[in-house]
Amino acid sequence: MEDPPQILIIKKKSPHGAHHGGAWKVAYADFVTAMMALFIVLWLMNASKQVQEAVGGYFKDPRGTAKVVGTNMNGAGDYVAIKKEDMLKLKEELLQAIHHLDPDNKLKDRIEITITQEGLRIELMESANGTFFELGSPNPTPELVGLLQVLAHELGKLPNKISIEGHTDSKPYSGARMYDNWDLSSERANEARRMMQHEGVRLDQVSQVRGFADQRLRLPQQPEDPSNRRISLIVQYLVRDETEIAPPDALTRLGVQSANAPAQSTQTQK
């Protein structure tokens, strides 16, 4: 009689964690990628229109072959049109912010916002008794302090560079003998820079502080008119290279105002 067959049970032992040691890393990487995408979307939702279009311009032209930020392969012509439209929107946003500060429109006739070859120009014009600065002085009035707080808060959100200009009328300065309209216009522009950087404009955002004295009169036929005494804030067009001013010929075709170019005194932000 044959012996019954023996049943052999073979148990294989494998090292602990041999098959699942790296699986969690893939899941974690997916989670981190999803969170990064979420935060980018949230940041873009709260970013300014200019930043959103600049980011969009990169994805349209990731190789950087187009001339300027925010364009596709069509080049600078489309860029200027788009940026002019942005400046018009920015103008409306600034006017709304100023209206909240000045609901009675007491400063309406003292503020002028236009689009020029340099960008969006904001003119803060003086009255006969002084609206934004004390007469013959670089000391600001409460009206200017409040207004620059609003403008700095709005302009500080933008990637665009800002230049600041000071202007006077043609009346000779009646103060100290060694102090004239060149000094006054430069000091007023620099005082505006200090206040705006204190209220939200980035330190590297101001590209120039310039004093023109009476060389760029707003009303050349009325050289002593108080409105010639003014501070000008220029939000410059945003471009890819180091040039901050958009192509003049393209802007002219779009009907943008041209800027005069007489002699000037320049203080460049270092």
Short synopsis of the structure:
It is built from six helices and six strands. By secondary structure, the protein is of the alpha+beta class. Strands 1-2-5-3-4-6 form a six-stranded mixed beta sheet.
Question: How does this model look, in words?
Answer:
The chain has a domain at 106-268: 2-Layer Sandwich (60s Ribosomal Protein L30, Chain: A), CATH 3.30.1330. Helix 3 (76-101) packs antiparallel against helix 4. Strands 1-2-5-3-4-6 form a six-stranded mixed beta sheet. The longest helix has 26 residues, at 76-101. Helices cover 37% and strands 13% of the residues. With 270 residues, the protein is α+β, with helices and mostly antiparallel strands.
Please describe the topology of this protein.
Layout: H1 23-46, H2 49-60, H3 76-101, E1 111-115, E2 119-125, H4 142-155, E3 162-167, H5 181-199, E4 206-211, E5 230-236, H6 248-253, E6 265-268
Parallel strand pairs: 3-4
Antiparallel strand pairs: 1-2, 2-5, 3-5, 4-6
Helix pairs in contact: 3-4, 4-5
